[in-house]
Write a structure and sequence with these properties.
The protein is about 30% helix and about 35% strand. It is an alpha+beta fold and about 325 residues long. The chain has two domains: about 160 residues, Alpha-D-Glucose-1,6-Bisphosphate, Chain A, domain 4; about 160 residues, START domain (Alpha-D-Glucose-1,6-Bisphosphate, Chain A, domain 4), CATH 3.30.530.20. The radius of gyration is 23 Å and the shape is elongated.
């Protein structure tokens, strides 16, 4: 179990159970109104559209994915409000808000059992709830403010450094029923410098392979593996959020996708690399390849020659072949 500020969370495989507790100076009735009344909800979260009662279906009108259709599983004013959080086809998750009176105000507890379905989680949701609840606290205290993307990003960075537990070795994990490779490396360089190594021709060529990059939405990565006995390939960019995220195709199958994501630690940066795999992909071989290239990245960032050569690849691959058994 890990504690970050007032968030407590546990990660078991692809399930993250998170818990937030807050003490508000306002009485239970005032806090309950902030959780259920449209004008109050607009100030810190989203107003539920529909009838608030157990068994009813309501809509949470956020812009992403057209909003969320949610079923209310428990509604006991002014104590408990629990509702589902999942898109169609996803495992059901439940968000529970609980209130109880205490001396000087109200004790509030939020729990959320989140299935990790992609690389943005659970850091997106942990940071999101924390920023929403901070906004709620300010609103109740008479200091209303807007949601802060900057604060959310900083919280996401902090959670990522806690959760990832960086290691030189990569692993194979199963997310949403599909295999992916996962590496987490802390680099002793600022975020902008690491971003240059992931997003420019010279940067990528310095540690990975010869590259020509068209860095824009709808752009591409052309990666030339000729020196490794392969060919050059052009892969479309699927997601771009400079200087944080780039995701691109990395093979012929729809599941072959690489994502490089950076988290800011001030004078150091956390790089999380995920590589979704097609069913027939050689996980051990790709783990070995990424391990070798990531080992070269710190020297490239420092502008120093790296003694590693492709002759090391067989020994790295052998390690993963034994570990993965693929």
């Amino acid at each position: 179990m890990t504690i970050s500020g007032d968030a407590v969370y546990r990660i078991d495989g692809d399930l993250c159970t998170m818990r937030f507790e807050r003490q508000f100076a306002q009485p239970v009735e005032r806090v309950w109104a902030a959780l259920t009344q449209p004008d109050d909800l607009k100030a810190w979260f989203y107003p539920f559209q529909g009838t608030l009662a157990a068994g009813e279906t309501v809509t949470i009108p956020w812009e992403e994915d057209g909003g969320l259709s949610s079923k209310i599983v428990e509604f006991d004013p002014p104590k408990t409000f629990a509702w589902t959080w999942n898109q169609p086809g996803e495992p059901e998750a439940v968000v529970r808000w609980e209130l109880r009176p205490e001396a000087g105000g109200t004790h509030f507890t939020l729990t959320h059992n989140l299935t990790i379905l992609g690389p943005r989680e659970p850091t997106d949701t942990l940071a999101g709830w924390q920023e929403h609840l901070d906004t709620l606290a300010d609103y109740l205290d008479g200091n209303p403010r807007s949601w802060s993307n900057e604060t959310w990003r900083a919280l996401k960075d902090r959670y990522a450094f806690e959760i990832e537990k960086p290691d030189v070795h990569g692993r194979v994990e199963t997310i949403n029923g599909k295999r992916q490779l996962h590496f987490a490396r802390v680099l002793e360089f600022p975020l902008e410098k690491v971003w240059q190594a992931l997003s420019t021709d010279a940067g990528v060529s310095g540690w990975f392979t010869d590259a020509t990059i068209d860095l824009r939405d709808g752009g591409s990565y052309t990666l030339d593996f000729t020196k490794f006995g392969d060919h050059a390939y052009t892969y479309p960019i699927l997601q771009l959020d400079p200087p944080r995220v780039v995701e691109f195709k990395f093979g012929d199958h729809d599941d072959d996708v690489v994502r490089w994501e950076l988290f800011d630690g001030g004078d150091r940066t956390l790089l999380v690399l995920t590589n979704r795999l097609s069913p027939e992909a050689d996980a051990a071989g790709q783990l070995g390849g990424w391990h070798y290239h990531l080992d070269r990245l710190p020297s490239a960032l420092a502008g120093e020659p790296d003694p590693r050569t492709e002759a090391l690849l067989p020994s790295v691959n052998a390690h993963y072949a034994g570990a993965v058994g693929d």
